[in-house]
């Protein structure tokens, strides 16, 4: 997969929108490595939750020409950036400004991707962001164990994923990936550590999740 | 917001809403973005789409003559209809307008092509 151009975004944009970093690239690498599997699913609908700059969903949209690519972000600046990035790279991604998958019809997503706000913070820090006007806090503040937003999405996973659906989720060691895998099992999913990488100061995993 | 996306949006997350679909769509400003016709894309997507939502989109876009009341069985061989669906679902881009919950009347504005569907804490 080609890495999309992001030269239209400037340091001013990155004050409001998550700038692609090692975690973004790990997720891109994992999707690239599993591309033949993804293509074999013939996904009708792809959704990236929290696209930020839009770099990941744009790479997917460029590759999956017969897939409708959607993106939902709680940060309106990220929604705008995502549309721009897709456009700048000659493709189309739909941005919807909303929380996770709340507003989507059931069992419709075949390919789900999420690089969540995974940094361990206090729950207050996560809550307070709604009252400050710094949208960028959404990109990293994850609450206790960095799991608040991840756990909220897992609760909706069964209702949003189609029968053949697959979900790629990035997690940090502090997010307790082994516990996530057990929880997913209880919810009726198989989860494996598909890829992992040590980066300065963090150890990251990509979980690949399918229905049992 | 393209009209294919419209087909996937509901207001079910609002407290007390039973179905929340299809949302009432109003278009104030739209763009038509020409895109390459790919019959496989449309054909594959159709089973994922809700026909009543497609019909409603066609009505709002002023294209109801193009879209039959029921999805015909042999749609794969009906290139003319696939082309019309392609135009309706992938080429019409709503830039300004709104979506409205059919049960509560809650309005979600569409600005610069992006629907704002953020709910307040007391709505969920
Ligand atoms: C770590 S950033 C990832 C950005 C991009 N996908 C990447 O990999 O570079 C997390 C993103 O999730 C978004 N986000 C956080 N909480 C969310 C929620 N509840 N619903 C939707 N998006 C959310 C943030 O605004 C941010 O864009």
TrEMBL record, chain A:
GO terms for biological process: methylation. InterPro entries: DNA_methylase_N6_adenine_CS, Euk-Arch_PrmC-MTase, PrmC-related, SAM-dependent_MTases_sf, Small_mtfrase_dom. Belongs to the eukaryotic/archaeal PrmC-related family. Keywords: Methyltransferase, S-adenosyl-L-methionine, Transferase. Residues 27-124 form the Methyltransferase small domain. NCBIfam families: hemK_rel_arch. This is Methyltransferase N6AMT1. The gene is LOC125775262.
UniProtKB/TrEMBL annotation, chain B:
Belongs to the TRM112 family. One of its GO terms (molecular function) is protein heterodimerization activity. The gene is TR112. Its main location: cytoplasm. GO terms for biological process: rRNA (guanine-N7)-methylation; tRNA methylation. GO terms for cellular component: nucleoplasm; perinuclear region of cytoplasm. SUPFAM superfamilies: Trm112p-like. Pfam families: Trm112p. CDD domains: Trm112-like (cd21089). InterPro entries: Trm112, Trm112-like. It is found in: Cytoplasm, Perinuclear region; Nucleus, Nucleoplasm. This is Multifunctional methyltransferase subunit TRM112-like protein. Keywords: Cytoplasm, Methyltransferase, Nucleus, Transferase. The keyword Glycoprotein does not apply.
């Amino acid at each position: 997969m080609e890495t999309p151009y992001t030269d239209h975004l400037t340091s001013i944009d990155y004050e409001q929108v998550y700038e692609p970093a090692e975690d973004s690239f790990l997720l891109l690498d994992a999707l690239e490595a599993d591309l033949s599997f993804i293509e074999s699913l013939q996904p009708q609908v792809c959704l990236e939750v929290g696209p930020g700059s839009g770099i990941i969903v744009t790479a997917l949209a460029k590759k999956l020409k017969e897939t409708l690519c959607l993106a939902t972000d709680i940060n309106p600046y990220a929604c705008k950036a995502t549309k721009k990035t897709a456009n700048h790279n000659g493709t189309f991604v739909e941005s919807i400004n909303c929380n996770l998958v709340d507003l989507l019809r059931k069992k419709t997503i075949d390919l789900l991707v999420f690089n969540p706000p995974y940094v361990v913070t206090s729950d207050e820090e996560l809550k307070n962001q709604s009252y400050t006007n710094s949208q960028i806090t959404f990109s990293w503040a994850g609450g206790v164990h960095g799991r608040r937003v991840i756990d909220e999405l897992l609760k909706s996973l069964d209702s949003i994923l189609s029968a053949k659906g697959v979900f790629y989720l990035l997690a940090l060691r502090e997010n307790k990936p082994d516990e996530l895998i057990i929880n997913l099992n209880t919810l009726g999913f198989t989860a494996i550590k598909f890829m992992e990488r040590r980066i300065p100061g963090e150890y990251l995993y990509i979980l690949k999740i399918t229905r049992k | 917001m393209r009209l294919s996306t419209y087909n996937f949006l509901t207001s079910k997350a609002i407290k007390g809403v039973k179905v929340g679909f299809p949302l009432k769509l109003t278009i104030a400003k739209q763009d038509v973005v020409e895109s390459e016709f790919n019959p496989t894309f449309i054909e594959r997507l159709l089973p994922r789409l809700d026909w009543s939502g497609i019909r409603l989109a066609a009505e709002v876009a002023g294209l109801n003559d193009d879209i039959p009341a029921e999805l015909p069985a042999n749609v794969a061989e009906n290139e003319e209809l696939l082309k019309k669906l392609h135009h309706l679902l992938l080429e019409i881009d709503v830039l300004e307008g709104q979506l409205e919950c059919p049960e509560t009347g809650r309005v979600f504005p569409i600005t610069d092509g992006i629907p704002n569907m953020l709910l307040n804490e007391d709505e969920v």
